[in-house]
Here is the input.
Amino acid sequence: ASDVDWWESATLYQIYPRSFMDSDGDGVGDLNGITSRLPFLKEIGVTATWLSPIYESPMADMGYDIINFTKIEPLFGTMEDFDAMVAKAHELGLKIILDFVPNHSSDECEWFQKSIRREDGYDDFYIWDDGKIDPQTGERVPPSNWNSEFNGPAWTWNEQRQQYYFHWFLSKQPDFNLRSPMVHQHLIEIMKFWLERGVDAFRIDAVPHFFEKRFDNGTYPDEPPSGMTNDTNSNRYYDHIYTKDQPENPTILYEWREFLDEYQRQHGGDTRAMVAEAYASVNILSDYINNGTHVGTQLPMNFNFVFLRNTASARMVQLLADNWMNVMWTKHKVANWVVGNHDNSRPATRIGEQRADMMTIIAHAMPGTSVTYYGDEIGMTDYDAECTWASCDFRDPERTPMQWDSTTNAGFSKGNSTWLPVNSNYKTLNVQRQRGIARSTLNIYKAMTALKKTIAFKSFKEEGGFSYEALSEQVFQIIRTAPNIEEYRVLANFGGQMEYLDGLTNKTMEYVVLNSYSPHRYGDKVDLSKRIYLMPYEA
Ligand code: TEU
Here is the structure.
């Protein structure tokens, strides 16, 4: 028995549906493919899986541009396929988390089309503005100098409506007007729809971008230049003081939390949780959880480790861990550790293969929830494929098909080609092969998810239940303890040199339960009261 709620100490796994498993040979992953691989998730110790968007979409931003929020994209399958997937997941004890994109829709969404035509109530469903007249040229210009995340102006002129609309992302992704009560109603209806189909939680997309500054007279302030680049078209040309992290943002999370809690009260079952995506400071994220008056998301994602590069050191890991723990653990007793995702270079490429294994160990030994991006559990690397089609994305290298085995298309698809090419390293780097290698990345991941269950439920939240520290520039240590159990200790050497440690403890002999890379074997005794050696990149 434990009082730990499922989301607090989950082993969370992100699936990018296009690239996980293709069941029908069209070269694009789908829901039936995912369903067929749920036993794999179970096998490797995953407890909850988050699916990037699976809704009807023209795929300008690979599903983050939604046409219909309650319809399955035909490429991915049908509603029956979805129901079967949820049923299978629940049978296996896995939670299903859907991506929820409330900041914007596709411009092909019916609501945007109605808004263009100013139809019944949809007039201000999106953010429209006449723009300004430039006093020098007499020409019409956008309402403000804002640039979109993917560069270029964040305002696009619509001929039909004869107004500009605002889009933080692509011009094919118009922002909802979250000041409109009707938008709120629609969004709640979408959540309800999926809850009724058994969904356990939502990953909320792009929270820092919910609101933009707007004066009472309806005008929008210009952003000040950041001084970071001379390219006036670049997103980084400006500081985003009016387009990011506005004080209204968390109010929406508070509203949804009330709704989700009420839903649980009425329908029973486990907590319907919210995971929030936000590249924001811990003080901002803290208010997302609880600002003293309201409660919001349970789990704002911690992207600190996503900033690690091949210069990663134990000291750096400590600073990044402290940054989170000093605020989020101290105030709320929550933590999560995202090591990779679909918007960032893969850990094996970004941090290096061996250090990526070390980060897997650390992310699972720290208290809280671990978040692993599909393929990172086998150490998949970025693959720079030549871009031969229209909607190539700068993030394609980290989105290539899952490498299941050494057969055609890495076992991902029986088709002639795949939507992105399979990484050429698939014959040696795949699930099937790593199953048979004792210290493979996959087996390290599996061992850690198992160990995480043991240590998390025994010492989670208990006073003195854990500590972590950089013992030196390169050696990171985590200790997990609880009354009447063994002590677990992680030692990780981030450096390319052998390191030694003298007299770490005067206690007893310890045993190696897991080792990433060294002559140490499972079950070996180590006497930590004496000098011990760590090989380069050994954890
Ligand atoms: O990303 C939101 C977000 O904050 C992005 O700006 C992110 O920093 C960027 O993609 C990094 O390159 C979410 C999704 O994760 C992303 O895939 C979508 O493109 C975006 O929303 C728009 O919906």
Q: What stands out?
A: Residues 61, 64, 101, 149, 169, 205-206, 277, 279, 342-343 surround 1-O-alpha-D-glucopyranosyl-D-fructose (CB under 6 Å). The chain has eleven helices and 22 strands. The chain has three domains: 11-104+181-448, 110-166, 462-534.
